[in-house]
Structure formats: C-alpha cells, structure tokens
C-alpha cells in the first residue's frame, strides 16, 4: 500500500531527527508539513519564504539521501511556502497556529478582505501597562458592539498590536454572534474601492457594502490625511450611517485623531466621540512576557533559556515585531553555527542591535543625561557635540540640534532654560521653537520619525537597563 505524503515525510523526519542537532531540527524542520507528492518529488510546506529557501539549500539534498534507506526508493525533497501561511503576519515564522475551531457557516456573512487572522485573538494578546487600556476597551466593545466606546480608535507606532486588537474584537464578536456582518479593510483599500465605484458607476453597491455592515474595522486611517474631499466626504457619511444605526466602528492609526494632518475637523470630532486609546512601547516585564509566549507557541521553551529571553527583552525595545524578529535571527544564527542558544550567542547574533549601545557605554555613559543624548544624536547625524552647542545655524547642525533638544525634553523632562544652557546658551523661545519644529516635522516625515524613535529606543535602553546586564556588557 502506498504511503501518504504525511507518512513519507514523517519517515524522512524521523531519520533526520537522528542525524541533525536538536537545535537545527526544531528550528528548521519541525515547523514544516508535507503538501503533496508529484512524480518523484515530495513538496513540503514551510511557514515562510526564508525558511523554504534555507531548507532547500541546507537540507533538501540530505533529506533526499535518506529516501532510499527509509522508503526503499529515491525521492527528491522540495520546499515551498504553505499557501495558507502566506496570509499570516510577517513575524509568525516558526510558529504552529493554535487549534482552529470550526465556525458556523453563517459567520461567513461578514465581508472581510483580507480575511481575519486566526492568531489575532484576545487569548494570544499579551497585556501590559502600555496596552491595558486599549485591550480593556477592545474587550468591552466585543461584548456589546455599538453600545460602548463607539467608535473605538486605537493608535500607536507600527508593530505594537493595533491590528491584533482590532481583529480580536471581530473574533470575539463572531464567537458571541456568528451572524454578525463584518467588514475589515485598510484605508487604502477603502479609497481604491471608492475610486473604482466612481469609475464603474457602482456607487450604490459600494455604499451598501460599507453602510449595511454590523462591524466596520478600518486600519490605518491616518492615510486619510490630505486626501481629496470626495474620499473624506464618503468616509464621513459612512461613519454617520453606521453610528446612527448603532453599529460598531473600530479604527486604527499611528497617531491620535487631532494629529492627523489634513483631516477634516468634522471627522476628527467623530473619531473622538467614543474611546481613543493608545498603545505604547512595552516595558521590560511586558517584553519578557511577549517573548515567553512566543517561545511557548513555537514550542521553544526548552530551546531558549530564560536568561536569553531576558537579554533580548532588555536590548530590543522598539516593538513586538522586532522582538519576534530577534528570536528568528537568533534561531537562524545558532543553527548556522551549530551552537546552543546562550546569552553569548545571542550577543553575537544581535550584535548590530547592540553596537550602538556598547559604543555609548565605551564612552563612559551608563546613565541618561543631556550629554548622552547629544552624543547619540551627533553620532547618528555625523556631527560633533561641540557643533550642536555652537551658534552655527546651518541645516547640517540645526536639524540634529533641534532633535537633541526634543529628546532632552521628552526623555528627561528637562526645563527649557536648562536645555537652552546645554545648547550654547539659547533662550527659552528658541528651545520652544525647536520642540514644535520637531513635533510638526515628525507628523509629515515618517522616515525622520522612525529615525528619532530608533535613537529614543537606544537612549531609553541605557536609562532603564538593570545593573546585571550593564555589568555583563562591560565584562564582555
């Protein structure tokens, strides 16, 4: 009797488990699954393109060599990305999805494009100080859609869990009421569909889709900024129709409504009618909890020791995606080097993230001061600290000088007079102008905002690192 693809793959994996290091097997082969056998080739699904390419180059030939031994006939092994996993979020590598409970067919009444992710549920959302208000509001909305916090407006930087919470509302709502009609889109898609409806003269169908839904989820509404009046006009009327019908609206953005430049005042007002909740950067304990949950989902609790989890949580502070990306990079590095995962190996694998921190520490700065901020900004912009303190007003120095002032105010709550004195004796009105200039520029320049946030993350790491890890880095 011929073997099924799953049975064939199991035999090959059993042999590979005997030959390969546990670390390598768990990181690269355990997350795979047999897809099909076509001719003399077995196609194996991987969770992402990186894993598929890696396995093809490192393990395909080896696995193929096992076939005559364990099967009695030759068989080639080829890896490809599992089609279902292509729909999953970027940082779901190495993760086995949780059991998916069957939903009643009536749950499909909701029009959702892209479809909801099975991983974005309340059960898989790690709550900490930085997101507890948003999580509580989202849960309340899911229990009584249209009754409390309508609309729910969640904002925060990229990769902190806004979309996760938004979709968790949908999942919980469907669980409680399977016939709920759900529409989930990004703002760009909303605008593209609106343009298409105008060109095709299908406006009534477009309006029906959005105004007759029970739960409207719209991601990234900050992309409404500066759009033509037609788009904002349609969005306004859609919002009103749903709100007046008592239907729930959930929106996400990278900034609060009042800071979305070019957004009509009437839309800003409506976005603030319900609950506006922010999600901030996770603190150390929260990051540890996130990493431990990921390790548990990946079945890597025994592979990644607690001290390594703490090390990563201490040094990677920007967002959840980067935390997960660090785990993936560490797994790949350890597998390539055939090493067990330790703090030293983590330091090697993540050296790019640590280099800037170590550079400042080598200059003797292990606490956050205005001087530390000046040094970090000067290094990033390729200027000198003396230049930041000088009277020179060239753009080469003015921009980093203003940013350093802004960070000193944000991170240290330094008085305006003290900031002015630290930057060459400038008066408080100049400092105020600098702070406002940076704030306004960040609203319109996402690249600069990202650059400033990266420096801010670095400086916060220096400010809040526990002594044990400071000592660890010094010794190394």
Span between termini: 59 Å
Please compute the radius of gyration using only Cα atoms.
Answer: 26 Å
- Tell me the domain tally: 4
Q: What is the CATH superfamily classification of the largest domain? A: P-loop containing nucleotide triphosphate hydrolases
CATH architecture of the largest domain: 3-Layer(aba) Sandwich
Describe what this molecule looks like in 3D.
The chain is of the alpha/beta class and 476 residues long. The protein has four domains: 5-85, 2-Layer Sandwich (GMP Synthetase, Chain A, domain 3), CATH 3.30.300.180; 105-278, 3-Layer(aba) Sandwich (Rossmann fold); 284-349, Helicase, Ruva Protein, domain 3 (Orthogonal Bundle), CATH 1.10.8; 360-475, Chromosomal Replication Initiator Protein Dnaa, Chain: A. It contains 22 helices and nine strands. The protein has helices at 5-19, 22-29, 49-58, 60-70, 132-143, 162-176, 187-200, 203-211, 229-244, 265-271, 284-297, 306-315, 320-337, 343-349, 351-362, 370-381, 385-389, 395-412, 416-422, 428-444, 446-464, 467-475; strands at residues 33-38, 41-46, 76-81, 111-112, 152-155, 182-186, 215-219, 248-253, 275-278. A six-stranded parallel sheet has the order 4-6-7-8-5-9, with helices on both faces. It has a three-stranded mixed sheet with strand order 1-2-3. Strand 7 (215-219), helix 9 and strand 8 form a beta-alpha-beta unit. Helix 1 packs across helix 4. The longest helix has 19 residues, at 446-464. It starts with a helix and ends with a helix. The relative contact order is 0.08.
